[in-house]
Design goal:
mainly alpha, 87% helix, elongated
Length: 47
C-alpha cells in the first residue's frame, strides 16, 4: 500500500507539473486546473 501511495503522489506531482508547463502562457489558469486535478486525485484515492 505504501508503494501504491507513493505512485499516486508521483502521478499527482507529474500531472501538476505537466499542466503548469502546458499552460505556461496562462500561469493562473494552469494553477487552477492543476489544483483541481490534485484535489480530484486525492479524493479518488481516499474513496
Amino acid at each position: 500500500m505504501s508503494g501504491r501511495r507513493l505512485t499516486v503522489i508521483a502521478l499527482q506531482v507529474a500531472a501538476l507539473v505537466a499542466v503548469l508547463i502546458w499552460r505556461g502562457p496562462a500561469p493562473f489558469s494552469g494553477v487552477v486546473v492543476a489544483f483541481g486535478l490534485w484535489r480530484w486525485f486525492l479524493w479518488s484515492d481516499r474513496v
